[in-house]
Amino acid sequence: MTTQSASASVPAQAGSAPRIDAQTRVSLYETMVLSRTYEEAILREYHADKGPGFDIGKGLVPGEMHLSAGQEPVAAGLCAHLTRDDAITATHRPHHLAIAHGVDLRRMTAEIFGRETGLGRGRGGHMHLFDPSTHFSCSGIIAEGYPPALGQAFAFRRRGTDRVAAAVTGEGAANQGAFHESLNLAALWSLPVVFVVEDNDWGISVPRTASTAVGSNALRAAAYGIPGERVEDNDVEGVYAAVGRAVARARAGEGPSLIEVHTLRLWGHFEGDAQGYRQDLADAPTHDPIPRYERRLRDAGLLDDAAVERIKASASERVEDAIRFAKESPLPDPAAATAYVFTDAPSAGGTR
User: Fold this and answer.
1) Dihedral (C-alpha) 127, 130, 136, 139: value to the nearest 10 degrees?
2) What's the gap between Cα 311 and its chain centre?
3) pLDDT tens sequence across 232-288
4) Which CATH number fits domain 3-256+264-329: 3.40.50.970, 3.40.47.10, 1.10.3860.10, 3.30.2010.10?
5) pTM score, two decimals?
6) Residue 167 to residue 147: CA distance in whole angstroms
7) What 8-state DSSP symbol labels residue 204?
8) How far apart are CA 254 and CA 247, in angstroms?
């Protein structure tokens, strides 16, 4: 594990996290496997009927699709510290975070397939997943999740609770005004927010070296007087430790923290992205975090062949059940296209 701290008014304490117990380590692995199994299934279903060639508008799941293979350590390490009462706002690449936070797989998959049983009754699709029962939301707008996380954190504090909000975005979004405005206000009001940046090296096709003046966005925390920490190596245990410190501060009323994780985007920015701009593409699979962490747990005597097989079989069963549920669910009635959009059209056939 390698972390870098950026000292601020309250410095991050690199050695203050408790030792991770065996059960937690295996649980982190299970979360990552479930997330990857899900993305592989969505990848299969998404491309199944896009041919001949590739037509992004065709098939059971038309439109863009942003998958999170390679970024599982961020979700697993972060959400291990959150409860269903805590809030999380995610990006346009949200599935791993939704899964790790406990969003219902069936309803999430139905939403991705545009079905009436989905989280948003099939109206939102995969970039607009909203689950009030787990306080999960995401958006296709860059850095959009940061300001809503502040609102939730403000409400949590006003109600006298120890609940926290986690706001996740990509390294490209760290150059947006909403990012800096949110850090400033959270620090000013000492809100219980954990800001997380997923640095996968690429803002669509632009390398971070061509878009960002600093080597680590965690350094930017110092400008707002809050702790900043960068986790290298896409290390799930490093994420778990860093988030543990940040969540403990937030729950204790000590304000926000900023964590950047150097993670990995194994696949394209979106499905259909040829990735001709990536010089690191051939080498990317050698950095896959799941087999690396599996070897680590095997070496520690926490996993063997039988355990790995059980975990993968369980993940596959849950994912395939969700895919079946989505496919068997009804499509929304076209006559109800304005329902849930206009306040004076609550039912099918209503008028504006």
Assistant:
1) 30
2) 21
3) 999 999 999 999 999 999 999 999 999 999 999 999 999 999 999 998 899 999 999
4) 3.40.50.970
5) 0.91
6) 9
7) T
8) 10
